[in-house]
Automatic annotation (TrEMBL):
Region Disordered, residue ranges: 1-21
Pfam families: DNA_pol_A_exo1, DNA_pol_A_exoN, HRDC
MF terms in GO: 3'-5' exonuclease activity; nucleic acid binding; nucleotide binding
GO BP annotation list: nucleobase-containing compound metabolic process
Composition-biased stretches (Pro residues): 1-16
Name by which UniProt lists this protein: Ribonuclease D
Alphabetical list of CDD domains matching this protein: RNaseD_exo
Length: 434
């Protein structure tokens, strides 16, 4: 009897173990944590330093999103070479001296569209700016959050554990203030590094046009915002939709009065539950499964009044499922409504995706998707290529496209319009088999 064969192979030379990569060093404040500026004399002192400093100014703002109804800034952070970092509490301060000190400087912001509205609300407006998030997008960085860009471009890790705190809290805890100060600590270095990348990629002029356009950014007014109520698709009938609208509007008014986020009064789920059940009195409302929240009982009379108002509306005054818009229909409906326009859109989308890949940037940064759809749904009338190109140029410019975007995408859109008008080749007839 032979011994059983051991299936385990003889140990060979061990493969070298790759050493784990050293984690990036944690970003810290090089000058320590400055005191909060919350008096006019302290603000005046920093403004003198700021005006005497050199180079661009890194700016950030903290809001109380998720806690407050308003979008106001509860803390403004600034840093400039020669002036250091400042943490300014804008509540109750006249910010005119700060705007004067910032005159003629370039602001560095990350995700400028988030901060510009609340900074404008306190009287701060840029003469020039550089948006590090947008620069990252134009350069094709796959992730453009501030912490990610700081780590990948500059090699530092950032603390992000206080990003969702209530910045309306007073006094602000020191760890929160340190987190806020770190947001502007290396923005100038990040701007310099990304600026070099833009130059090397031939995209510096694109970025300049984008940043200049951003200076005048204003949030798009919300139209029919109640239609974004989570779970509204479960509501049936126009009267149910009317209930969502009235309950949402009532909640929004209460939230604005109290300056709290609407979801802290009643959640969207409660609005949907009441719109499904359509209770007729307070007892039935409070007994509705799913109707809950801090303000469910406290404001029960207002909810009942809103539901009674809906019950008394004429059918013609109730909202429809799909509101009429001023733009083209949803793309999925194009093939049925206008097959030629649908062909244009297919051709253009394929070409735009290829163009975006060629230039290493997201397709939505190549051209705002709504601009593309509007131009293709109602294109210029001319089909003479040169004239059509001129008219497409004018249409895109009127919509707000920047010159670099028009130059790159205009030929793609012209080609899609001309090719979309052509009848597609007929499918070959099937030959019946014997």
């Amino acid at each position: 009897m032979t011994d059983p064969v051991d299936p385990t192979p003889e140990p060979g030379p061990e493969a070298p173990v790759e050493p784990e990569a050293e984690p990036a060093p944690l970003l810290t404040l090089r000058d320590g944590l400055p005191p909060v500026i919350d008096t006019p004399p302290a603000l005046a002192d920093y403004c003198r330093l700021l005006a005497a400093g050199s180079g661009p100014v890194a700016i950030d703002a903290e809001r109380a999103s998720g806690y407050r109804y308003s979008n106001r800034a509860y803390l403004v952070q600034l840093r400039r070479e020669g002036a250091g970092t400042a943490l300014v509490d804008p509540i109750g301060l006249d910010m005119a001296p700060l705007q004067e000190a910032l005159a003629g400087t370039e602001w560095i912001l990350h995700a400028a569209t988030q901060d510009l509205p609340c900074l404008a609300e306190i009287g701060l407006h840029p003469d020039a700016l550089f948006d590090t998030e947008l620069a990252g997008r134009l350069l094709g960085h796959p992730r453009v959050g501030l912490a990610t860009l700081v780590e990948t471009v500059l090699g530092f890790r950032m603390k992000k554990e206080h990003s969702a705190v209530d910045w309306s809290t007073r006094p602000l805890p020191a760890p929160w203030l340190e987190y806020a100060a770190l947001d502007v600590e290396v923005l100038a270095e990040l701007r310099e590094a990304l600026g070099r990348e833009l130059d090397e990629a031939g995209k510096a002029e694109w970025a300049r046009q984008e940043f200049d356009h951003l200076r005048f950014f204003e949030p798009t007014p919300r139209v029919d915002a109640w239609r974004r109520t989570s779970g509204m698709h479960r509501v049936r009938g126009r009267r149910g939709l009317g209930a969502v609208r009235e309950l949402w509007t009532t909640r929004d008014e209460l939230a604005e009065q109290r300056d709290v986020t609407p979801g802290r009064i009643i959640p969207d789920a409660a609005i949907v539950a009441a719109a499904q059940a359509l209770p007729e009195d307070r007892a039935a409302l409070l007994a509705t499964k799913g109707f809950h929240g801090r303000g469910a009982e406290r404001y029960s009379s207002k909810w009942v009044a809103a539901l009674r108002k809906v019950a008394e509306l004429e059918e013609r005054d109730l909202p429809t499922r799909s509101p009429r818009g001023d733009g083209p229909p949803l793309p999925r409906a194009w093939a049925e409504k206008d097959p030629v326009a649908a062909r244009r859109l297919v051709i253009a989308r394929e070409a735009m995706a290829a163009l975006a890949e060629q230039h290493h940037l997201p397709v939505e940064n190549l051209l705002t998707p709504d601009f593309l759809r509007r131009t293709l749904w109602t294109p210029p009338s001319s089909r003479v290529p040169e004239q059509l190109a001129t008219e497409v140029d004018a249409a895109l410019t009127a919509l707000g496209a920047r010159r670099w975007q028009v130059d790159l995408t205009g030929p793609v859109i012209v080609d899609a319009i001309l090719r979309g008008d052509e009848e597609p080749p007929a499918a070959p007839a099937e030959v019946e088999s014997d």
